[in-house]
């Protein structure tokens, strides 16, 4: 039945969304530790060179995974901007 097929697709999407949220939560726990470390060492919140390397790396991964590299870059830029905001907050900026 079509409704069963759609329900299975949606269940898979829901499972993937849950995994994404948990992975993002773990990522932000690590980046918050990085922000605290940077604040303690007087390092700047942003590292443009590292950001560019990551964007290029994820664009390549996206291409290999048949995902639009432009989308992956936009997504990563959003995450990076949020991380930088957290790092600035850790420095009291």
TrEMBL record:
<feature type="domain" description="Chorismate mutase">
    <location>
        <begin position="1"/>
        <end position="91"/>
    </location>
</feature>
<dbReference type="Pfam" id="PF01817">
    <property type="entry name" value="CM_2"/>
</dbReference>
<protein>
    <submittedName>
        <fullName>Chorismate mutase</fullName>
        <ecNumber>5.4.99.5</ecNumber>
    </submittedName>
</protein>
<keyword id="KW-0413">Isomerase</keyword>
<dbReference type="GO" id="GO:0004106">
    <property type="term" value="F:chorismate mutase activity"/>
</dbReference>
<dbReference type="InterPro" id="IPR051331">
    <property type="entry name" value="Chorismate_mutase-related"/>
</dbReference>
<dbReference type="InterPro" id="IPR010951">
    <property type="entry name" value="CM_bact"/>
</dbReference>
<dbReference type="InterPro" id="IPR002701">
    <property type="entry name" value="CM_II_prokaryot"/>
</dbReference>
């Amino acid at each position: 039945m079509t409704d069963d097929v759609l329900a299975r697709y949606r269940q898979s999407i829901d499972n993937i969304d849950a995994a994404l949220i948990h992975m993002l939560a773990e990522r932000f726990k690590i980046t918050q530790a990085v922000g605290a470390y940077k604040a303690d060492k007087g390092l700047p919140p942003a590292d443009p060179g590292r950001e560019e390397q990551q964007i290029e790396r994820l664009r390549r991964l996206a291409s290999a995974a048949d995902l639009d590299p432009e989308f992956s870059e936009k997504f990563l830029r959003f995450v990076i901007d949020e991380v930088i905001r957290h790092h600035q907050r850790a420095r009291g900026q």
